[in-house]
Amino acid sequence: MPKQSDFGLFSGLSEEPFMDSTAPTPERIWSVSEVNGAIRKLIEGSVDTLWVRGEVGNWKRYPSGHCYFSVKDDRSELRCVMFARDAAALPTDPDDGMEVRVLGNLTLYEKKGAYQMSVRRLESEGAEGLWRIAFEKLRSQLETEGLLDPARKQPLPKHPAVVGIVTSTTGAALRDMISVLSRRAPWVRVLVRGTRVQGEGAANEIAEAINDLVATGEPEVVIVGRGGGSIEDLWAFNEEPVARAISGSTIPIVSAVGHEIDVTISDLIADLRAPTPSAAAEEVVPDGVGIREGLSQMPVELAKGLQGMFRRRRTMMEHALSRLGLGIDRRIQPVQQMLDHDFGRLQIGLRGVLDLRRQRLMGAEGKLDALSPLATLKRGYSVARTGDGQVLRSVRDFVKGDRFMLRVSDGEVIAETTELRGENNERNRE
Questions:
Q1: Angstrom distance (rounded) from CA 375 to CA 386
Q2: Does the global pTM surpass 0.70?
Q3: N or C: which end of the chain has fewer CB within 10 A?
């Protein structure tokens, strides 16, 4: 409430009624602008930031981005303005008649002498409010266009050689996905297109990143996602630019946004929805360990199957010969000899095939081991990383006194930089 001292702004005015023609001439005559300015200072200086609940009326957004409206109850109405920098955060415009609460400050528009509230935040009274309304509007639009039709979805490649990722380079989601991809398929090349995943303008950046990766023609599948958060944090993946970029992609897109309970527009329109970023990485590549084990057992299982088949056929033939009697033994013996001969040749051929397959398998295994980062580490090499996982490739990347992690074949060592030695390193001379 205004304090008595606040009215000192008007101390120069006569205390006599304005309509009294006998009142003496005041020492000072105020202009309209001065009066409105004084009232504005009085209002803004005496009332703190406050929440107001009411019903939206006369909502209008101008090309400038500024929004003008009112909030009212059954007895009163309060005029409001929401400037473009704050209105840009709204997922959609509220409808007239919607129950909302607004946060802001009381002020006076001096030019018109109009008392109003400058609104910084507007929220619907309903669950998730404007966010849910905006989500349903875009979902309905995309569904009408046929972009949510399951028939449009592209199948994922079974054995991709290159995987693209669109996400924040500073988030845990990227580290999780790379870790899973490296463990399951160390031969796969990963292309990362870093981008913001929340905040104003993030949706356009995500869409641009998707288009850029697709345009290169290198990835066979692209993962788009981020870790969990509130509906506001995940909102970039509910905006139309991202939906259009995913629907227009010529290669499969996997959406991995938030946690399993979080469902976004990108989840609905993508070719595959994964509950988490880690799960997305597991979906796009096969398990290399399982493939290796399956290949190693294939020759053994093939040999067992063929041997069993021949044993059954021979037993059947022997039973048939027994039933025919001794009289035709001489006619059958050449056939038996031929079978024995063919069986021997088949065994020799089978052993050759198995040996060839075993050699090829050993060669493939050697190539896989050569490509594995762990094999490099076992040869005595190590990888230095910062605390946030960034690889230190050059002496220039190290800073005296900083701690870093040294990855070796059987674990990690925490180390500290005490001295730098290298060619053309200015810090060596410090």
A1: 22
A2: no
A3: N
* pLDDT for 67: 93
In angstroms, rounded to a whole number, what is the distance separating the alpha carbons of residues 316 and 323?
Answer: 11
> Nearest-5° angle of CA 186, CA 192, CA 195?
150
* Angstrom distance (rounded) from CA 79 to CA 71: 7
What is the homologous superfamily of the domain 4-126 according to CATH?
Nucleic acid-binding proteins (2.40.50.140)
Domain covering 132-284: architecture: 3-Layer(aba) Sandwich (3.40)
Which H or E run contains 281? helix 277-284
Phi, psi for residue 19 in degrees, rounded to 5? -85, 0
pLDDT of residue 5: 43
SS3 content of the chain, % helix, strand, coil (to 5): 45, 20, 35
- Name the stretches of the chain with pLDDT < 70: 1-26, 126-128, 289-301, 303, 321, 324-333, 367-379, 423-430
* H or E element at residue 165: strand 162-167
pLDDT at 212: 94
Return the pLDDT at 332.
Answer: 66
